[in-house]
Structure to design on (119 residues):
């Protein structure tokens, strides 16, 4: 089993930055893809970014503004710059064995962390 714990959310003004962290524990290995998803009020959960070894995927909406990184098997980060009000959502960390797909086919999910961007 894999457990995921997000941190780093908060309130920021438009144009500002935040850095989210996700600490993974349990049976987590470098072969697991770690990803970020988000869900805004009244909307479906959507893919943000994912990473596995040197393979990285981004949603078009965040390309050039967000950067995903992983410093070991257990920790993944999401550096979010030039934030917009439409980035407001609960951000979830997710893990799956295999490629860092942009679908919701992840087996393990964190509880989420709130990001609010004010205009």
């Amino acid at each position: 089993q894999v457990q995921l714990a997000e941190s780093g959310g908060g309130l920021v003004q438009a144009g500002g930055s935040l850095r989210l962290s996700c600490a993974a524990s349990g049976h987590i290995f470098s072969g697991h893809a770690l990803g970020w998803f988000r869900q805004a009020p009244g909307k479906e959960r959507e893919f943000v970014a994912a990473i596995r070894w040197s393979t990285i995927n981004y949603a078009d909406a965040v390309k050039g503004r967000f950067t995903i990184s992983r410093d070991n098997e257990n920790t993944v980060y999401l550096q979010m710059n030039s934030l917009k009000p439409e980035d407001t959502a609960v951000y979830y960390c997710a893990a799956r064995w295999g490629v860092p797909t942009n679908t919701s086919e992840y087996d393990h999910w964190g509880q989420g962390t709130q990001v609010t961007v004010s205009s």
In short: The chain has no helices and eleven strands.
